[in-house]
Amino acid sequence: MRLADKIAFVTGAAGGIGSAIVALFRAEGAKVVASDLTAPTLPCDLALQLDVTDEGEWLEALAAAERQFGRLDILVNNAGIALTKPITTTSLAEWHRVMAVNLDGTFLGVREGMKRLAPGGAIVNLASVAALVGAPPLAAYSAAKGAVVALTRSAAITAAEAGQGLRINALCPGFTDTPMLDGISSDLGQRDAVRAKLARRQPLGRLCTPEEIAEAALYLASDAARYVTGTTLAIDGGYSAQ
Ligand SMILES: NC(=O)c1ccc[n+]([C@@H]2O[C@H](COP(=O)([O-])OP(=O)(O)OC[C@H]3O[C@@H](n4cnc5c(N)ncnc54)[C@H](O)[C@@H]3O)[C@@H](O)[C@H]2O)c1
User: Fold this and answer.
1) Residues 6+ apart with CB under 8 A from 124
2) Are 114 and 216 in contact (CB under 8 A)?
3) Looking at residue 37, what is its pLDDT?
4) Ligand 1: which of 24, 55, 180 to mutate, judged by most atoms within 8 Å of the beta carbon?
5) d(CA 172, CA 141)
6) pLDDT in tens, 220-231
7) The listed CATH number (3.40.50.720, 3.40.50.10490, 3.40.50.2000, 3.30.450.40) that belongs to domain 7-175+209-234
8) Is residue 111 exposed (0-12), middle (13-18) or buried (19+ Cβ within 10 Å)?
């Protein structure tokens, strides 16, 4: 039980990776607050509605979790949206929307988490392999995730210097089999053909599973990573090593 007695808060918890994180964290002994645009229906210990772009909703959701459990130990900033467009056809409105969910949402979560998490707590931010290598069809998304990596480093040092043992790290999934990847694949052509092509392009020869990302989130959230902060962990089948 690697998260025994821990209280964890997960955003975007109804999605592919989010729901795998909720399930694994609970299996490892955590009480898990699952939040999404509408309160998720998956098995969890408290289901909340939270649009991560809304500062007021963040404050209400974190307060509700604290009322229920008395404290928070772990925050996973997992909510995200993709936009399958190169820079040349991305409108300013689309850019702002992608930044709002992926970057503003993470900024609000990290800032509020730093104020509230118990000593020895951990924040895990979902970035992407698109933050590490050029991804031409995902221009705004890549920029937002690159900024999540930079924010993670900056905030991790601030948190470390505060001396409470709070750690902040980023995860960079590769192409992971979720509804988000289905959407990207359909945007790029015939869904199954695109997925098969993407799988062939991974050094390990297949797509990643949500459960494999959840395992990495578990590591970063747990005491096994007690000397790990400000790092960026790629779970990408070797894609960014090419
Ligand atoms: N699937 C991949 O290949 C992949 C690769 C790299 C990074 N990621 C990142 O992993 C995270 C999870 O992605 P996924 O693949 O599970 O996607 P998904 O689409 O299955 O799930 C995303 C979830 O975020 C929620 N969400 C969207 N906007 C929100 C908002 N404003 N407030 C709260 N919740 C919101 C959605 O309702 C959904 O449940 C995202 O940050 C994504 O960018 C995914």
Assistant:
1) 74, 75, 76, 77, 169, 170, 171, 217, 220, 221
2) no
3) 98
4) 180
5) 13
6) 999 999 999 999
7) 3.40.50.720
8) middle
User: C-alpha distances in angstroms, 90 versus 139, 141, 212?
Assistant: 8, 11, 32
Q: Quickly tell me which residue has 């990408």 as its tokens.
A: 236
Residue 224: per-residue pLDDT: 98
Which of 19, 41, 81 has most ligand 1 atoms within 8 Å of CB, for mutation? 81
Catalytic hit among 141, 219, 227, 239: 141
| Residue 53 dihedral angles phi and psi, to the nearest 5° | -85, -5
The number of the ligand 1 atom at minimal distance from the alpha carbon of 208 is: 3
How crowded is residue 73: how many other Cβ atoms within 10 Å of its Cβ?
A: 21
What are the tens digits of pLDDT across the range 144-194?
999 999 999 999 999 999 999 999 999 999 999 999 999 999 999 999 999
Strand, helix or coil at 25? helix
- CA dihedral of residues 10, 46, 41, 20 (deg, nearest 10): 40
Ligand 1 mean position, distance from CA 17 (Å): 7
Looking only at the bridges linking them, the beta strands covering 31-36 and 122-126 are unpaired
Domain ranges of the chain: 7-175+209-234
Answer yes or no: 239 catalytic: no
Q: How many CB atoms lie within 10 A of CB 117?
A: 25
pTM of the model: 0.99
Q: How far is the CA of 79 from the centre of ligand 1 (A)?
A: 5
Q: Are 61 and 108 in contact (CB under 8 A)?
A: no
